[in-house]
Amino acid sequence: MLPYKTIQEASAVLVIPFPLIFIELARLAGFDRYKIQPKVRLSWPEMFRCYKDVMRIFLLVVGPLQLVSFPSIKMIGIRTGLPLPSGWEMFAQLLVYFLIEDYTNYWIHRFLHNKWGYEKIHRVHHEYTAPIGYAAPYAHWAEVLALGIPSFLGPAMVPGHMITFWLWICLRNIESIETHSGYDFPWNPTKYIPFYGGAEYHDYHHYVGGQSQSNFASVFTYCDYIYGTDKGYRYQKKIFQKLKGELKGNGEQNGVSYHFSTQDLKSD
Ligand SMILES: [Zn+2]
Ligand SMILES: [Zn+2]
């Protein structure tokens, strides 16, 4: 799920996934080998339906929020004038925002996986068991609002400059689109970020679906590790590595990672 404070930030999310959609539709051989669930192919109408539903939520839920956006930013103490923030200030604040968001999002997301939360709200986001970029903000309106809170909490606790705030929202959106892209590119620079989850990590959460008790965190992997909610994923990964070794050389395609079992192992 994604946070938005202005319609411009939200509209960026409607444009950034375009290259991913092209890759998905064209199924170029060079990219296809990095598809996490290669057997799942969404048609153009299916993708357009996702886009349309996301647009509807933006207009009906995110749009009205614009009325309180600027006053609320001023109220929490975000400055808009000179001097501009230093690079170090921006880096430190962005790091804090990511950590606060990740931790809070983890618990809200985990709560949404109880019976009531899942049936009434979170089920919508899980309609895509093999997500695409546009599925990142595809969710029930209540989830759009609830998961906006973790993104606003960091800037409210450690207010900085408006530029830092914009950068934070942009990075968080791009990160969420990337983790829902359905592709795990080995050259992705995020591979060098310590404890970063990435596309494969969150894809597993969608693949398992409603029963999933694994991989709740939005950005990093440390919360799932500390609270023991990555055991199913790690077990699957271990088996996959073993299977991959066995299948190596007999012409099997990349992408069997989630197709040999539909059973998620409960963490507890
Ligand atoms: Zn979920
Ligand atoms: Zn998701």
SSE order in H/E notation?
HHHHHHHHHHHH
Content-based structural category: mainly alpha
Distance between the termini: 25 Å
Write down the overall mean pLDDT: 85
What is the count of β-strands? 0
**How many domains, in number, for the residues?**
1
- What bound compounds does this protein have? zinc ion
Q: What is the overall silhouette?
A: globular
Q: Provide the helix percentage.
A: 55-70%
The fraction of residues assigned to DSSP E strands is under 5%
Largest sheet: none
List the total number of helices: 12
> Could you tell me the radius of gyration in angstroms?
19 Å
Q: pLDDT below 50 for ≥5 consecutive residues: which ranges?
A: 259-268
GO cellular component, one term: membrane
Organism: Castanea mollissima
Family: Belongs to the sterol desaturase family.
Domain Fatty acid hydroxylase: 95-229
Name some characteristics of this structure.
disordered C terminus; binds zinc ion; mainly alpha; 268 residues
Structure description:
The protein has 268 residues and is mostly helical. The protein has 12 helices and no strands. Helix 5 (87-111) packs antiparallel against helix 8 and helix 5 packs across helix 9 (162-179). The protein is globular, with a radius of gyration of 19 Å. The model is unreliable at 259-268 (pLDDT under 50). The structure holds zinc ion (ZN) (2 copies). One zinc ion binds at residues 109, 113, 122, 126, 205.
